[in-house]
Design brief:
Length: about 450
Amino acid sequence: MKEQNQKRLNDSFGMRWGALAIVAFTMMAAYYVNDVVAPLKSMLEASSLAWNSSEFGVYTGAYSFLNVFLLMLIWGGLILDKFGIRFTGKLATLLMVAGTGLEYYAMTALAGDPSTIMGYKSSVFIASAGYSIFGVGAEVAGITVTKMIAKWFRGKEMATAMGVQVALARVGSQGAYAVAIPLARAYEITTPVFIGLICLIGGMIAFFAFSVLDKKLDRQIAATATEENEEKFSFSDVKSIVTNPGFWLIALLCVLFYSCVFPFQKFASELMITKYGIDENVAGTIAGLPALGALFLTPVFGGMIDKRGKAASIMTLGAAMLIGVHCIYALPFVTASWIAILLMIVLGVAFSLVPSAMWPSVAKIFQPQQLGTAYALIFFIQNIGLWGIPTLIGAVLDNFCVTGTTASGAKMYDYTLPMCIFTGIAVLSMLIALALRVADKKYGYKLEEANIQ
C-alpha cells in the first residue's frame, strides 16, 4: 500500500518537464536533418551532384518511401505498443544516425559519379536510401515521443507539453533553413548534413539518458494493478482503431494538412528566390519562418486547448488559413517580397494551430494502450502524402514550369501550377476538418472540451 501511494516521477512538475526537454532535443536534431537539404535545392543542381528538380523530388519523397511501401511505421507502432517507449526510441535513434551517415556518404563520396543504380544517379539513389532509413527512424521516434508525452502528462498539461515538444522540434527546422546556405557557401555543400549527423548522435545519447527515468516511472506504475492492466495491448485493438470514424478523419486531415506544409517548405526557398527576388542567403530563413512561429505559438495554443478546449474548431481555422496562403502564392501577379514574408508568417500561425489541437485529440479518441498503434497508422497515412506530393511537385516543375536557366546553370521555374496544387489540397483539408467537427458531436469525442478538468 505504501508503494502504491508514493509520489511518481511524473507527479513532479520539474521531472516531467525535464524528461520532455531531453526527448525534445532528440526530435530537434531529427527535424534539423529532415529540413537541412531543402534550402540547398538550387545549389545541388549547380554543384557536382547536378540533381535536377525530379531527382530532388525523388530524394525528398524518399523520406517516406519505406514507411509507405514496407509499412515500417505500422510495424513501428506495433513494436511501440508491444515493447514500450524505451526499446522503440533507442531503435529509432539508431536508424536516424545510420540513415544520415549513409546520406552524407552519398553526397560526398559519390558527387560527380556518372554510374547509375536502377536508372538513378548513384548519389541520388544512395542518398535517397539513407534518407528513407532516416525517415523510418524519425517517424517512429515521433510516435514514440508523442506516446511518451501522453504517458508522462496524462491528466496534466498534455496539449501544452505536446505543443512545447513540437515548438522545440521546430527550432531544429528553423536552424536548418537559416544556416544551410551560409554553411554550404562557406565550407562544402555537405557541411550542413555533417553537422546534422553530429547532432543526431547527441540526440541518441539524450534518449538513452531519458530511458533511465522512464524505467523508474514504469516500476512505479507497475505497483498499481489497474494501470498495469490498462497498458496491455492486443492486436484486436487495430480493428477497433481502423473502424473508428474519428481515426479516418484525423488521418485524412493530417495527410492533407501536412502535405501543404512540409513538401511546400522543401521548395519554398527556391520560390522565394525566383518569384519574389529574395536574396538566397536569407531565403532559407524566410522559408523556415513557419517553424519559428511554431516555436512561440504552438505552446500558447496548446495551453489554450488544455484550459478551454475547442480543438476541432481550431483545426478548422488552421486549415482555412492554409487555403488563403497558398492561393495568394499561386497568383502570378503578386511578386512583392513583403507579401511573401507575410504569408509565411500566416502559414506559421496555421502550422501552430492544427498540430496543437490534432495530436492531443488522438489521445481523447483512443484508449492509452492503443495510442502507439493509432499514432503509427496516422503517421503512415501522412507519409503517403510526404512521399507522393514532393515527387509530384518535382515532376511538375521539370515538365511544365521551366522558364530558363540561371548564370550558374540551374533551371528557373514558374511556381504557379505547383501552388495551385497546394491550394487544392488545402481546400480538401478544411472540408475534412469540418467533417471532424460534425463527427465530434455525433460520437462524443469531446474534442471541444478542455483537457484539464
